[in-house]
Backbone:
């Protein structure tokens, strides 16, 4: 498929580079459930240090990392606040309720444009026979918000809201590397704002597997038990962790290339009134509400032109740039998509 199509569906479709495969093949390994895999241990220490936290835990997926973090912060029957389009309540198949017994309440979907005062007004304290709020979750960058970057000032205000209310703050940082590159905010600056974080290696950074939970040493010790309960304890996982370490060393700064390519895609489709948001990072959100084509029709027409796009809803679609694309691929997409949109 990679040779036949320009795959703009997701940044999860990348394949390990030659250098990454070499790092995996030569990785020193041990039994990670026993805490004896040196490559996993090195990855966890490296990521914890990047965000200024005491510890981190390697997990098979971003969804598991998020759900482990939420269970660290919210007891069964208590409440999580997040936005209505957040990954933790949209794409994780009800895991917060099913595994953590967590009640979720959402503010209207606004992507990265969060109003901290509105969030503060939603927090429920103990008592009054209401479900008490225990944590707030945000997503950086925001997937369904078109890769939007929550401004540092907004996150700092949310930290203040959480502190004033005595609740925790979690970051689904699946693409926080993109925010770091786009806005120049140091990773450690993000890290100091959150009680827990999940950060993904298998999206923009191009590793084949893996995310990490980041937090205090006490929280990560508890997280190991939750991971095991959820079936996430892996054995010689250093083969996978080596890919993550390679990605951190080689694939962060190059995210700027993905951002520039996404901007080219956004510029190409903008004249047709389908651009939902500006392209701040590597995601381009399309709103086809006022266009003759719906999302499935656009995807089918694009596929016929050798371009794959993601259908998010009847009238919403997404284009994603990533490690597996080059400028020639974007040239091909930039030629095809305007032609399809103009012909409808």
Residues:
């Amino acid at each position: 498929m990679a040779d036949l199509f320009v795959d703009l569906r997701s940044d999860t479709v990348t394949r390990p580079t030659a250098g990454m495969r070499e790092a995996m093949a030569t990785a020193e390994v041990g039994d990670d459930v026993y805490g004896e895999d040196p490559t996993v241990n090195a990855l966890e220490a490296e990521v914890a240090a990047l965000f200024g936290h005491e510890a981190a835990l390697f997990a098979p997926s971003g969804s598991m990392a998020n759900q482990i973090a939420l269970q660290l912060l919210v007891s069964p029957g208590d409440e999580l606040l997040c936005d209505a389009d957040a990954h933790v309540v949209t794409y994780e198949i009800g895991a917060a309720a099913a595994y953590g017994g967590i009640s979720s309440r959402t503010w209207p979907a606004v992507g990265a444009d969060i109003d901290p005062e509105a969030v503060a007004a939603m927090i429920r304290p103990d008592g009054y026979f209401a479900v008490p709020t225990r944590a707030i979750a945000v997503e950086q960058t925001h997937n369904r918000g078109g890769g939007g970057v929550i401004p540092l000032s907004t996150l700092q205000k949310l930290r203040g809201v959480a502190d004033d209310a005595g609740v925790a703050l979690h970051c689904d940082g699946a693409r926080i590397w993109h925010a770091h590159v786009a806005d120049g905010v140091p990773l450690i600056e993000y890290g100091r704002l959150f009680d827990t974080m999940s950060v993904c290696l298998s999206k923009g950074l191009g590793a084949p597997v893996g995310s990490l939970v980041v937090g205090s040493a006490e929280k990560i010790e508890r997280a190991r038990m939750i991971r095991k309960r959820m079936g996430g304890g892996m054995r010689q996982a250093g083969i996978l962790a080596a890919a993550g370490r390679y990605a951190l060393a080689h694939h962060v700064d190059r995210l700027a290339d993905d951002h520039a390519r996404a901007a080219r895609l956004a510029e190409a489709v903008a004249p047709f009134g389908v651009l939902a948001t500006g392209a701040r990072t590597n995601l381009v959100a399309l709103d086809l509400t006022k266009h003759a084509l719906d999302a499935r029709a656009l995807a089918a027409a694009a596929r016929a032109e050798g371009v794959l796009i993601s259908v998010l809803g009847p009238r919403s679609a997404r284009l994603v740039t990533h490690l597996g694309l080059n400028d020639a691929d974007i040239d091909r997409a930039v030629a095809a998509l305007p032609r399809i949109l103009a012909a409808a």
